[in-house]
Amino acid sequence: MTSKLCVALTFDDGLIEHYSVAQLLNRLGIRATFFVVTHIKNHEGRTLLTSRPELMERISKKGHEIGSHTKTHPNLTTIPLYEVEEEARESKQLLENLIGTEIRGFAYPYGAYNANVVKIISKYYKYARGGGVNPLEDPFNVKFENLYTLGAFARQRRYIRKLLKLPVKLIKRDYISCIRIALVLHAESLPEILMLITYLKSLPAHTCFMSMSELLNLSSSDYQALSIE
């Protein structure tokens, strides 16, 4: 049995450049998840896909998953709860009206959440992703036990070092059939993304790329099927 590394590449903010990312991934046969901000056209000096909404629809039609990253990208732990509800509900509504499919996933802006925020988000979405790895609860970020506090590897040096050690560490710990991980990306260039994909494919485990929803829906029987060479 050969171990599988099951990877969800996720992109936050909905930058206009992410349309080119989606095109690159399609050429490589890779599906990913794009968490987009829906009610503003610029964020931190960068143009968002909301300036050309048709591009979000095209990304979805290319087979990628679209998720919500709120209306306006606030820190949800610092605003009133009724505003958290508005950010969650209205972003989901806009996206579903735009692309015509259910929006299942949500990404917390700045990776910030608390129990009250999670309670609200769980009313509207099937899962929610944060922005880092909790070393105490899940040092390798592969358990995916709470669907509303999912972690993800980022490109910061401390996470990359952990990612470099991930396959060997997990194989030694008998995570045999399928290792599930998510990565969060923002404004990386196409060459940087391509280098990351090339690295992941070079690891001592067969690497499969999929959307976040597909990753979370993997069952034990799926693991077994993925392990057949």
Provide keyphrases for this structure.
8 helices, single chain, 17% strand, five-stranded parallel β-sheet, disordered C terminus, two-stranded antiparallel ribbon, 229 residues, TIM Barrel, globular, alpha/beta, 9 strands
Model description:
The relative contact order is 0.20. The chain is of the alpha/beta class. Mean pLDDT is 85; it is low at 223-229. Helices cover 39% and strands 17% of the residues. The strands form three sheets. Strands 1, 2, 5, 8 and 9 form a five-stranded parallel sheet that branches. It has a two-stranded antiparallel sheet with strand order 3-4. The protein has a single domain, classed as TIM Barrel. It is globular. Helix 3 runs parallel beside helix 4. It has helices spanning 18-27, 53-61, 81-99, 115-124, 157-172, 190-202, 212-217, 220-226; strands spanning 4-13, 33-36, 42-43, 46-47, 65-68, 105-107, 127-129, 178-185, 206-209.
- The DSSP helix count reads 8
Got a strand count? 9
Quick one: overall form? globular
Class from helix and strand fractions: alpha/beta
Separation of termini?
8 Å
Q: Looking at CATH, which topology would you report?
A: TIM Barrel
Please tell me how large the radius of gyration is: 17 Å
Task: Estimate the mean pLDDT confidence.
Answer: 85
Which architecture name does CATH use? Alpha-Beta Barrel
* CATH level 1 class label: Alpha Beta
Low-confidence stretches: 223-229
CATH superfamily: Glycoside hydrolase/deacetylase
Describe the main β-sheet briefly. 5 strands, parallel
Tell me the count of domains.
1
**Helicity level, as a percent range?**
25-40%
Written as H for each helix and E for each strand, in order along the chain, the element string is: EHEEEHEHEHEHEHEHH
Beta-strand percentage range: 15-25%
